[in-house]
């Protein structure tokens, strides 16, 4: 290989047009999913606008706006009117997500509707499964998660996304969907979901912080990458259609490892704390939000994600138009 002065890598960096021609990774709004929080009352969030809550009545306008921008997929989270020990609001056919699905299905039929399948927004204790003897009971939670997924699919979800991290949930959900004739509904599994400090702003927006303890008994230890590959392989064996790594930025190596090991569609979740860090620094004039956000999102794609769930999805559309 020729070296300097024959080789000069700066030649391809000379102009904007040349840099664009040489660019290896591009953002396409078609790859983005925008999270939507739906609750009984609207709750705008001034500092973190994408974490504001909408009502079912707001969804027609929201769907129209998203499609006009070119954002074609949403991930729905529900904040129920009341919570209980089992999280029964999660699988209530008249629950908040089910009503949101019917509204969006009717008003924005082209929008791809993904739903987060978990119990933490619906349980009084804020854990992602059933609590027994101070711990989260894995096997008892499976049936409730499966029931939730079926109820979402029946209300119009295009895909269900289990984020609870119980062992065996992908298989339980696949079986339950198939039993109800919903064999065409894909499962987007939050396969490598880490117990992360970066979920803070989300838990406030979704009112889903655990009332006691933490989630380290079911979500993954951020120190592990081989275990993430096992999670992904098991989810695939249980029938997952798309795998997901979350959070994205602290785990770019995990995204890369999954991309290299498995030839399946891969999503990454650019979570609330990643969004909030940039927003907070930008609000103080410490960095430029647009440049920083685009750099983060490009890194997530470069690491190997096909699909990116991000609170910046609408901004990506605006910034690139
Ligand atoms: C629900 C769930 C969480 C997130 C997505 N689904 C929170 C958690 O596990 O505590 C976090 C998303 C974000 O921070 O943007 N289990």
Which features would summarize this protein structure in a list?
321 residues; alpha/beta; TIM Barrel; binds ligand PBG
Which SSEs are present, and which pair or pack?
Blueprint: H1 16-22, E1 32-38, E2 53-54, H2 59-69, E3 73-78, H3 96-107, E4 112-117, E5 130-132, E6 135-137, H4 138-154, E7 159-162, H5 169-179, E8 188-193, H6 200-206, H7 226-237, E9 242-246, H8 252-261, E10 266-270, H9 272-283, H10 289-303, E11 307-310, H11 313-319
Parallel strand pairs: 1-2, 1-3, 1-11, 3-4, 4-7, 8-9, 9-10, 10-11
Antiparallel strand pairs: 5-6
Helix pairs in contact: 2-3, 4-5
The structure holds ligand PBG.
Describe the structure.
There is one protein chain. The protein is α/β, with parallel strands linked by helices and 321 residues long. It has a single domain (25-319), classed as Alpha-Beta Barrel (TIM Barrel), CATH 3.20.20. The chain is built from eleven helices and eleven strands. It has helices at residues 16-22, 59-69, 96-107, 138-154, 169-179, 200-206, 226-237, 252-261, 272-283, 289-303, 313-319, and strands at 32-38, 53-54, 73-78, 112-117, 130-132, 135-137, 159-162, 188-193, 242-246, 266-270, 307-310. Strands 1, 2, 3, 4, 7, 8, 9, 10 and 11 form a nine-stranded parallel β-sheet that branches. The protein has a two-stranded antiparallel sheet with strand order 5-6. α8 links the parallel β9 (242-246) and β10. The model has no long low-confidence stretch (mean pLDDT 97). The structure holds ligand PBG. Residues 116, 118, 120, 128, 163, 199, 202-203, 208, 215, 271-272 line the site of ligand PBG.
